[in-house]
């Protein structure tokens, strides 16, 4: 992906996160907790599990629709995201060639089933992570982390990082554009020029840090980042956490998909 | 009202690399005055401003803010009196949301959370940005950023407002809004800028700095109409005076 | 190189999260103790710098493919290990949230793999000793090549270990290792060259930066190699202990799985509502026995090792049928809500 594309992608996700919907209004802690439980539940399924994972898609689908997040955007993110899981998972069909009877005479190698399971888990966990930001905003997530006990030096680092990501990405983008305008083919995009660019960016970063420090001092900064409680954990947040937890655990311990299947079979047979 | 006083008495400052940025600057700004500081690039304007809130400490001479001599011990106290608005609002606004940013100063002053909330609403209303309260700074336009930067400084209720190029990067309309805003403030104001029209609009007095020295100090309309002196300092007549 | 949620088991994910969180807490405490308040904004902006720098591509010589910066070493050299680790952790956190790189459970592993090794091993044990006493550019290049290379090798090795411990991948240890280590040797060399280039450039342009930054002060950088090693042995012991505890308590990595419940439940072949209800009942009745079953598993660990689901024809068919229906229902819910909301607005 090109620099510009990535930059605008993040910007888009960031903008999504500042809208006002039912989901956005939930307390950030509630969403962080629910997402964590969701991911752990999904991951806790053994490697050949496919069928029982299906109902879990209700979680991202509900979040997407209730928060008005464009479905295509989430889908694209999942497709684009780090290919590592696919890269590793693709070896499963090669190494695990035991066959399983799927139905009547349809045979399938177990490796394909575990690959499918990995892909489903991948889609579920990645969409959960994206939706967490898209419905909470990054400062919201950080606030939640802070109030869930993550040490302040780390959360204030996250706040600062978030604040300056966009500023520095713009700065980097200007530098990259200047490079690309004057380099042709692979010339000028090599490692030497790259190190120099990074060096320039780094020096500018130092200078910026100086100016920010100055601005902080002039507003009474004395070594501690002040913070304020801004959100309240309401009953609806508690209900949300409770319901999602109950739902995930129900799914985890009862194979609802199969039950429905049996139910239908029972009716039709 | 002597406590709103700014006095520079033959201030001298030299950077570690040997650049003599200020070579004996003296002036006295009294309560409620609005003073423009102009001069060529590298004349020493920014260095001068950095002395006003104690980011730099003079090597020779003295700076008096209110009734305090500036030194390492008093600079914390002086920072409460002097609010500095920096040139680049991206450096000034370092918190993740507008609210957090405006609240940063008051919280550092030890105000209660209740009071901080009131204060934030109040100053955001003053600069006309109340609706932006929960936005992150990178979603704001340049004009909004500079308005919020000013809000974050006046939230500390400083006696003296110091600004470094407040109108750079603003489109004409945002600039006009900023000027109107500044004219409403009754603080003692010190504004360094190349935007001479703005100085003319906002400031009654003007100080010209050249190579670290004060070369002119007087009523803004007189100094800013002196074409010869302005051009000696890489400046030119304000547009509004050129037409006459 | 980013570890992914989908390849992890909860036990491995949680263990590495625990290690990562402990390190974050430790570094935060260290920073609070000898804080240079100037470094608060510096760390923040440097994090953004790494983030932005990682988005810039460059052409890798002789291959034509493009690479990008990891940044762990640059951070460690500028900030010292503790601050660098926090910055690296924050960069990876933002990446996992905005790019969904790997996912949230895997974030613990990723911070560990890309943060711990450069900050607490490669920098203090390799780079620092090699670059004492105002080194020349050649020395810096050598030191950063070696430290980046080793740091990345350890990171890659961690990925292999994490994946294998989780047991979701079928890749044999050796094959996996052969796949990961050479790739990361290449990445490490590139990283080393870039690190040396950047550090060299900044040293010539703004030498004073390296005098004022925390890493040059004794306190922040004053980690003795011995302490680091001791800490590591302890951490490794804890990690290993925790892992083996998990492994013995839950034979297939916390997957206290339904298929085990199946196995015992001896699914009735008869279909129909009655049997479904009966199974529900069986399961509800089954859960109280669970603790007992666990200890039984502990005794005969062997038997529980292969997590092969009870795939018989009946279950898989109804499973697929059920899945189709669930997918249908989810789609209807999604489309329905969207339609209702659109009508409202």
Quick synopsis:
The complex is a heterotrimer of chains A (269), B (244) and C (345). Chain A is mainly alpha-helical and 269 residues long.
How would you portray this structure in words?
The complex is a heterotrimer of chains A (269), B (244) and C (345). Chain A contains 13 helices and 2 strands, in the order αααααααββαααααα. With 269 residues, chain A is mainly α. Chain A has 2 domains: 3-147 and 231-261, no CATH class; 152-217. A two-stranded antiparallel ribbon of chain A has the order 1-2. In chain A, helix 5 crosses helix 8. Chain A is globular. With 244 residues, chain B is an alpha/beta fold. Chain B has one domain (2-238): P-loop containing nucleotide triphosphate hydrolases (Rossmann fold, 3-Layer(aba) Sandwich), CATH 3.40.50.300. Chain B is built from 11 helices and 10 strands. Chain B has helices at residues 45-52, 75-81, 89-92, 98-108, 113-126, 142-154, 172-184, 196-202, 220-223, 227-232, 239-242; strands at 6-14, 20-29, 34-38, 60-65, 68-69, 82-85, 160-164, 188-192, 205-210, 213-219. The longest helix of chain B has 14 residues, at 113-126. Chain B starts with 5 loop residues before the first strand and ends with a helix. By secondary structure, chain C is mainly alpha-helical. Chain C folds into 3 domains: 5-249, Arp2/3 complex 21 kDa subunit ARPC3 (Orthogonal Bundle); 256-310, no CATH class; 313-345. Chain C is 75% helix and 1% strand. Chain C is built from 15 helices and 2 strands. Chain C has helices at 10-33, 39-54, 72-79, 81-98, 104-130, 137-166, 173-205, 207-212, 218-221, 225-249, 258-265, 273-286, 290-299, 301-304, 313-344, and strands spanning 58-59, 66-67. Chain C has a two-stranded antiparallel sheet. In chain C, helix 1 (10-33) packs across helix 5 (104-130), helix 1 runs antiparallel to helix 10 (225-249) and helix 3 runs antiparallel to helix 4 (81-98). The longest helix of chain C is centred in the middle third of the chain and has 33 residues, at 173-205. The model of chain C is unreliable at 212-223, 244-274 and 280-313 (pLDDT under 50).
């Amino acid at each position: 992906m090109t620099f510009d594309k990535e930059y605008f992608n993040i910007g888009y996700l960031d903008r999504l996160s500042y809208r006002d919907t039912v989901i956005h209004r939930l307390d950030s802690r509630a969403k962080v907790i629910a997402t964590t439980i969701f991911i752990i539940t999904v991951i806790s399924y053994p490697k050949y599990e496919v069928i029982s994972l299906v109902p879990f898609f209700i979680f991202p689908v509900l979040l997407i629709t209730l928060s008005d997040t464009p479905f295509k955007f989430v889908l694209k993110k999942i497709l684009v995201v780090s290919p590592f899981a696919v890269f590793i998972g693709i070896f499963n069909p090669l190494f695990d060639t035991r066959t399983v009877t799927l139905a009547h005479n349809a045979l399938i190698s177990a490796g394909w089933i575990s690959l499918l399971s990995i892909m489903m888990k991948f889609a579920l966990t990645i969409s959960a992570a994206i939706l967490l930001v898209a419905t909470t905003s990054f400062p919201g997530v950080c606030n939640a982390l802070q109030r869930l006990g993550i040490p302040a030096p780390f959360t204030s680092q996250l706040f600062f990082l978030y604040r300056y990501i966009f500023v520095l990405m713009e700065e980097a983008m200007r530098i990259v554009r200047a490079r690309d305008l004057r380099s042709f083919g692979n010339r000028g995009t090599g490692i030497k020029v790259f190190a120099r660019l990074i060096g320039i960016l780094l020096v500018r970063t130092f200078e910026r840090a100086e100016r920010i420090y100055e601005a902080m001092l002039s507003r009474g900064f004395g070594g501690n980042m002040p913070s304020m409680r801004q959100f309240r954990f309401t009953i609806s947040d508690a209900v949300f956490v409770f319901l999602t937890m109950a739902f995930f655990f129900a799914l985890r311990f009862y194979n609802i998909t199969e039950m429905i299947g049996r139910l239908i079979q029972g009716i039709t047979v | 009202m002597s406590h709103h006083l700014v006095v520079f008495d033959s201030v001298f400052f030299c950077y570690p690399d040997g650049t003599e940025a200020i070579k004996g600057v003296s002036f006295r700004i009294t309560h409620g005055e609005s003073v423009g500081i102009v001069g060529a690039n590298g004349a020493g304007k920014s260095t001068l401003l950095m002395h006003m809130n104690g980011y730099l400490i003079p090597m020779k001479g003295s700076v008096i803010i209110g009734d305090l001599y500036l030194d390492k011990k008093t600079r914390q106290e002086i920072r409460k009196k002097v609010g500095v608005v920096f040139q680049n609002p991206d450096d000034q606004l370092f918190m993740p949301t507008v609210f957090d940013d405006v609240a940063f100063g008051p919280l550092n002053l030890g105000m209660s959370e209740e009071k901080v909330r009131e204060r934030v609403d109040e100053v955001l209303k003053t600069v006309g940005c109340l609706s932006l309260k929960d936005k992150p700074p990178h979603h704001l336009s340049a004009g909004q950023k500079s308005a919020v930067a000013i809000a974050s400084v006046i939230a500390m209720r400083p006696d003296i407002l110091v600004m470094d190029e407040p109108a750079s990067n603003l489109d004409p309309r945002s600039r006009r809004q900023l000027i109107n805003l500044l004219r409403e403030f009754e603080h003692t104001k010190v504004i360094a800028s190349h935007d001479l029209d703005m100085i003319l609009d906002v400031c009654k007095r003007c100080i010209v700095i050249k190579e670290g020295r004060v070369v002119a100090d007087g009523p803004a309309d007189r100094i800013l109409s002196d074409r010869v002196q302005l051009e000696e300092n890489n400046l030119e007549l304000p547009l509004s005076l050129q037409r006459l | 190189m980013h570890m992914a949620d989908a390849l992890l088991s909860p036990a491995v994910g949680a263990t590495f999260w625990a290690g990562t969180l402990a390190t974050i807490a430790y570094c935060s405490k260290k920073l609070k103790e000898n804080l240079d308040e100037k470094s608060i904004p510096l760390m923040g902006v440097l994090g953004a710098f790494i983030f932005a720098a990682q988005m810039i591509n460059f052409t890798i010589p002789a291959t034509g493919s493009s690479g990008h910066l990891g940044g762990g070493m640059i951070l460690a050299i500028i900030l010292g290990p503790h601050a660098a680790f926090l910055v690296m952790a924050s960069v990876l956190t933002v990446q996992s949230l905005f790019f969904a790189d790997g996912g949230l459970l895997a974030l613990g592993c990723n911070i560990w793999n890309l943060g711990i090794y450069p900050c607490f091993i490669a920098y203090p044990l390799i780079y620092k000793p090699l670059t004492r006493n105002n080194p020349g550019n050649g020395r810096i290049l050598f030191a950063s090549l070696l430290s980046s290379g080793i740091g990345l090798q350890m990171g890659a090795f961690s990925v292999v270990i994490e994946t294998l411990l989780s047991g979701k991948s079928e890749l044999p240890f050796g094959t996996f290792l052969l796949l990961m280590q050479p790739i990361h040797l290449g990445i490490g060399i590139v990283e080393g060259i870039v690190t040396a280039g950047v550090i060299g450039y900044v040293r010539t342009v703004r030498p004073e930066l390296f005098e004022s930054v925390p890493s040059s002060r004794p306190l922040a950088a004053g980690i003795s190699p011995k302490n680091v090693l001791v800490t590591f042995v302890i951490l490794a012991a804890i990690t290993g202990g925790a892992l083996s505890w998990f492994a013995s308590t839950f034979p297939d990595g916390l997957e206290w799985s339904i298929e085990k419940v199946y196995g015992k439940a001896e699914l009735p072949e008869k279909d129909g509502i009655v049997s479904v209800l009966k199974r529900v009942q069986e399961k509800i009745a089954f859960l109280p026995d669970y603790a007992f079953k666990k200890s039984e598993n502990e005794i005969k660990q062997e038997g529980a090792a292969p997590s092969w689901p009870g795939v018989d024809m009946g279950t898989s068919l109804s499973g697929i049928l059920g899945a189709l229906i669930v997918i249908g229902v989810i789609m209807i819910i999604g489309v329905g809500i969207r339609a209702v909301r659109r009508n409202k607005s």
